[in-house]
Amino acid sequence: MRLGILGSGSGSNMQAILDAIDDGSLDASIELVLSDNPDGFILERARKHGIPTGLIDCRGFKQKFPDEAQTETAQALKDAGVELVCLAGFMRLVKQPLLDAFPERIINIHPSLLPAFPGLESWKQALDAGVPETGCTVHYVDAGMDTGPTIIRAKVPVKPDDTAETLHARIQEQEHRIYPEAIRIISAGGA
């Protein structure tokens, strides 16, 4: 399966996908990595692996993902032969026209057991709510915020002495495990 990755930050989930490809447990290739953040370490990770990279021009918007930028992103992904788009810490809401260009072919990893705690810093939301467990979810992307159908989830207990940092670190361990698994499931036609 030919993957395209969109990210804004460090790219640890992309690294987990790369590691699964490298160890032979995931039959896929990453064809293109795009970021809306020129300083995102995800770009450096991709370059170190010889993967083409590019910047998404969001026209100065801090949070919005303008239609023109989505059209350009979709074209770059199509030109690279991408079959499945993986959001890996991409901090903008995907809407049309990108959704139209890759119908049911865009997935995201979110650090909660959706539908609980959508949006930003969900591990902090879980701590504030006092829930006994949280986790992470890989889901298909639709026009809502973290509302698409679930592919796979992993639970993480919330410990009494957890801080936002310790809980987030344990959630990320599970993210790195289940994101490649979700791609395997899709590739096998299981989701």
Automatic annotation (TrEMBL):
Record keywords: Transferase included? yes
Which EC number(s) are documented for this chain?
A: 2.1.2.2
What domain of life does the native source organism fall in? Bacteria
- Which pathway is this protein assigned to? Purine metabolism; IMP biosynthesis via de novo pathway; N(2)-formyl-N(1)-(5-phospho-D-ribosyl)glycinamide from N(1)-(5-phospho-D-ribosyl)glycinamide (10-formyl THF route): step 1/1
UniProt GO BP: 'de novo' IMP biosynthetic process
- Keywords linked to the UniProt accession: Purine biosynthesis, Transferase
Active-site residues, Swiss-Prot/TrEMBL: 110
Residues binding (6R)-10-formyltetrahydrofolate are: 62, 91-94, 108
Q: Where is the Formyl transferase N-terminal domain?
A: 1-183
PROSITE patterns hit by this protein: GART (PS00373)
Task: Name the enzyme's class.
Answer: transferase
Q: Spell out the reaction equation it catalyses.
A: N(1)-(5-phospho-beta-D-ribosyl)glycinamide + (6R)-10-formyltetrahydrofolate = N(2)-formyl-N(1)-(5-phospho-beta-D-ribosyl)glycinamide + (6S)-5,6,7,8-tetrahydrofolate + H(+)
**Any idea which positions bind N(1)-(5-phospho-beta-D-ribosyl)glycinamide?**
11-13
A single cellular component GO annotation: cytosol
Q: Does the keyword Membrane apply?
A: no
Q: Which Gene3D superfamilies match?
A: Formyl transferase, N-terminal domain
Question: HAMAP family per the record?
Answer: PurN
Q: This protein is called what?
A: Phosphoribosylglycinamide formyltransferase
